[in-house]
Structure prediction request, 628 residues.
Amino acid sequence: MAMVIGIDMMGGDFAPLETVKGVELYLSGHNIPARLLLVGDEAQLTPLLKKHKIPMNHVDVVHAPQTIGMFEHPTKALKEKPDSSISTGFKLLASNKIDAFISAGNTGAMLVGTLFSIKAMEGVIRPAISTIIPKMNGGTSLLLDVGLNADCKPEQLNQFAIMGSVYARLVLGIRKPRVGLMNVGEEEGKGNILMQGTYPLLKENKHIHFVGNVEGRDVLMDKADVMVCDGFTGNIILKMAESLFEIYQQSSVKDPYFERFNFENYGGTPVLGVPKPVIIGHGISEAKAFMNMLHLAQMMIEKSVIKKMKEELQ
Amino acid sequence: MAMVIGIDMMGGDFAPLETVKGVELYLSGHNIPARLLLVGDEAQLTPLLKKHKIPMNHVDVVHAPQTIGMFEHPTKALKEKPDSSISTGFKLLASNKIDAFISAGNTGAMLVGTLFSIKAMEGVIRPAISTIIPKMNGGTSLLLDVGLNADCKPEQLNQFAIMGSVYARLVLGIRKPRVGLMNVGEEEGKGNILMQGTYPLLKENKHIHFVGNVEGRDVLMDKADVMVCDGFTGNIILKMAESLFEIYQQSSVKDPYFERFNFENYGGTPVLGVPKPVIIGHGISEAKAFMNMLHLAQMMIEKSVIKKMKEELQ
Prediction:
């Protein structure tokens, strides 16, 4: 059975033009096993799809006349706009019409929609979102959670470590991902109550390759491939890293390392710990980012990332 | 009555040569109201003081034959080495022989020594340590706590806000310091339980100029002059900022902004919330850093920083 990926054509600052161009890029590739369900306003989409010569044997348009704005209140918007592209996408996902859902629209609505429609994977306390952090040595590491869970328990961080490891292995291609606990100080016993409680769990966890604590100074260095923390800490690190690119752009210098802090390069970030891939893009996503998100969804399905996570979490 | 500043001559990677040179620099200035008590091993100090022509009418040497190493266990070392320069310094401070104490030695021993000898100021739940963060626009902001309190209560953060404001006003010369709460999201109600509990306290606090939440992306920007958080979050931010200088040094580019992340420039950081100035320097401190620490101690005494904090905390 062919995989079907749903994409919110109205989500993001440059939609629907850039989403259509992203679909065009994706479908021009060699390996396109996926059928796409394009969710959005037909009146706006039809002429664009024609103009960009999208091969209609690969796609279906699902009409969704409403759009949730970037600054609308997530829960309220989802309730008041049942025919929005995001609401429609989650209905398709929950009823198994699509195998993955992508949007660069309202992040809050995407998160709330995920949690309310397909919910957390069985056994997962709470899903998490991750980010790619460019490392000094040219590699990348995965940081999670970066915002879904401001307050966490040690058991949650232990699950993040497993989910992050599976993702790093299957999607980032890191054979034996080193897991580090984001902390202050190097030794066991250091840190706040959360990290003191988490350390022994990670140490005992047979599903991961735990390498101990990592500190603030290690975030950009090559010390761990997966860095685990609560969503409060992770979000502050992520946003500080994002601001480095802004600072870099304003400065007169050119440096390939700081160039890699352009988070547009990374397409989108998946919600981890849910039974189907949900990928959330930056509001500023352009064609290439949408293409990357489609490839990411395809890869997550092809490599059975979620099935593997489920196994490892048991 | 003249002020007396005590300095650990044996503390830091380049002691006692660089501490002696720092004293020399300080005493060569125009405004030297302070008498210095030089705490350390007389046998090592006497020839150096002679060689650097330290004017002995301005200084006294207090013999301390033992030295606490940079990697010794703080509590154990303080107990086992009562005649170390750090132990001796705190005895002098507790018995009012000196008005301030400076060391670039074992940070942990300095913190433990502070808490056990002079203790927290009356009414202060727990002292804090702060760091200077260089801002993109050329200014500086103060971040606290950066490590003394991994877990905090809202009432502590409220006190950090007051202590930070007084310090920013009197020492950094910022007329009306804007206080920001380190958080995720801009609006009230965002964040983890700690920050949700802290926001209303800061909002009601008449002693500070609260400007709301600041996020990870604002740390290096000009949004607040005093940024308040728990010591876990602050330590991760500090160490990540410190690593920027390391990355910068390894890169081929020259940029005056990243140059300012050289934390050696800032001398030392005071422990805030204790009844007398205690200033802790980086282990890598050289002469200029020691001179800056002596000036900082002098300034804190001259401007009655601690008295002002006490008033504002009531």
Notes: The mean pLDDT of chain B is 93. The first strand of chain B starts at residue 4 and ends at 8. Chain B has eleven helices and eleven strands. The CA atoms of residues 103 and 277 of chain B lie 11 Å apart.
